[in-house]
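hiii, so i know i said id send this last week but things got crazy w the move. better late than never?? heres the sequnce for the chain we talked about at the cafe, plus the structure i predicted for it. fair warning i was half asleep when i ran it
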Amino acid sequence: MPAPQSVQLGAANFVFARTWALDLQGVAPGDVAVTAFEEELERRHGFRRAGSGGGTLRLRVALNSVAVGPAQDKDKGALAEQAYRIELTKNLVTVTANSATGLFYGTTTLAQLLKPRNGDLLFPEGRIEDWPDLQLRFIYWDDAHHLDRMDTFKEAIRRAAFFKINGIALKLEGHFQFKSAPAVVEPQAMSAAEYQELTDYGARYHVQLIPFLDGPSHIAFILKHPEYAKLRAFPNSNYEACVTNPEYYKVLESMLQDLLDANKGGKYVYLSTDEAYYIGLADNEQCREAARAKELGGVGKLLAEFVTRVANYLHARGRTVMFWGEYPLKVGDIAALPSHVVNGEVYGPEFDREYRKHGIREMIYSSSQGEEKFFPNYFPRRTGERRVEDTFRKTSFDTARRDADLLGTVNAAWGDMGLHPETFWLGYATAAAAAWHPGAPSPAESTAAFFPLFYGERQSEMDSLYRLMSTQAQVWSESWETGPSKARTPIWGRSDQIYAEPRPAKDQFVALPPVPGAQLAYSGEWAKQNGKRLELAAESLVENDQLLGLLHRNLQVVEWNAYNLEVFVSIAHLYRQNLEMLRGLGQIDEAFRSAATAAGKNEAAGAVKALDRALEIVTLVRNSRNRALVDATETWYKSWMPRLTEANGRRFLHQVDDVKDHLPDRTTDMSYLVYRELLLPVGEWAEQLRMARNSYAQAHGVPLRKDSFDWKDLKPLAGSETAEISLE
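okay and structure toks below
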């Protein structure tokens, strides 16, 4: 994976023995094609080659030794660097390539071909000739809202290389130690030396680490700071900078230079012009963009002027700029761009033809994650995006193949909703497969190929496991209502307008059963209004049992990437906690009805007991939530640096984006994973219930309760993870 361009395999297999010799022709012994292949054999199969004879593995690099066949990319020289040929016979396996890159990809394919059988490693007889359809296969890695540990980054590079991904666009925002902008640097931040270490590590595995910086929009991480408020296009919004302010260019270019200095040997830079909604609209004492846009002939031309200025700065320093050539750019604005930039997303026939005419190459953009919570939409519950299938179709059959001068693809997994990157690898790998060999195999076949390569031959029912992970994530979202938020500052505008008055953001909520009235009167309307929700929770709890069973069974047998499944288990428990909460609310409703019935029969002790049960249930719900959050935090922090407000002599300024509502920004720690529950007024509700209970108890000679309940207390209680919510 990816599927090679030409494969001829025979029915016979032969043993690749530890005694096979290594024959290097034009290849240094320390070349990564050699060392990585040996490492994969040991890591995956516990196999160490002794090399005393019996067969030969020949690795050969020779210029013009492998021809490139039909391909979309017009730069056949770049494709030839990645081409290879494998010849498999009983006593001789030969990997031939034009360059070190092609040899690395050849030995990577060789490692994937090996199959363990009864203690042996088997190769099929045959011949493979291979080259990519497009020279660049990039992924976007979002560390804006957390910072991965260094060993996590290195593992990501190795995984990317294994699936022939050759570029990672890394978004760090304040998680990089900008020398020129110390105010934006967050408590946990990568140093320039660490960034260069990753750059060099990636280069060894033929993976480019690509700096990514937003501008002029999506930069609340800069503009929220008082030091940079003067750079805003609109004084009351931290979303977008003023592109007619020379001081903004000084800040932006200095920050870019900091990244370049830590990325020596790099070729590309992502200047993310994503969603520059308001460029050219500002007309205030701080920013006069409107006049400049009018002078140039439109807001799109002002965006083109911005791109040109920054891209020329980077081009002069040996870098090629990739940007998002989207709204508010219009077709007529493309001629104002320099031809040395690369458009990071195809935008339809009219745009693509004009970009091609102007000499600007393009990337096909696809996404493995957008706004989903917890897990990408690989398998939709009803309708919606199907991440693997949509990427396959876009990459293989988009009209850009006819109209654009394509350079490569980029598959993004946005971190806006705070997902763990371990959930993205199916999307990343299948996206690269479609870019290398468009149209084959099918999305289902590509998905099926991924599972044994990623987890090992002993994994089982991974298709069902991923399907349940996807659908349970959708149930998590669908099981609550959505409405105006009172918890965060209002939103300043959206893509098509600046609001006259800021409007509320959106939050999710669920109605609590109403506290019983006088003499514990209770209508029972809540159950009718929430019947479908309770049915969904009951059905989904059964599926959650199945999911956890599959996860734990696979955790016992997978050969590789077990941590990936540990993350999935933590997510499955978050799913379950939500479902148990909904079930608990239903049980509270039943308790209230029982209390009303007992009160009607003048059974005061029974009525009070039912109310006490309701208070017990809500305590169990809180404890279950806290246990799930602690487990997720402990698991995720194995690969993440802790999310902190203060560390390393730096403080985090907690101020949300005025336009984009990114869930992790709602809190400074991991509690964003249960954020919507913390917004529910359960504490006030529980106090009202206690007072109603005590009022009735006092009137009927039953002892009072003097305890208090703190819904927002996130400390787990010992054993709470096993507490059952029942009404026995």
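btw The chain has a mean pLDDT of 95. thought thatd interest u
miss u guys!!
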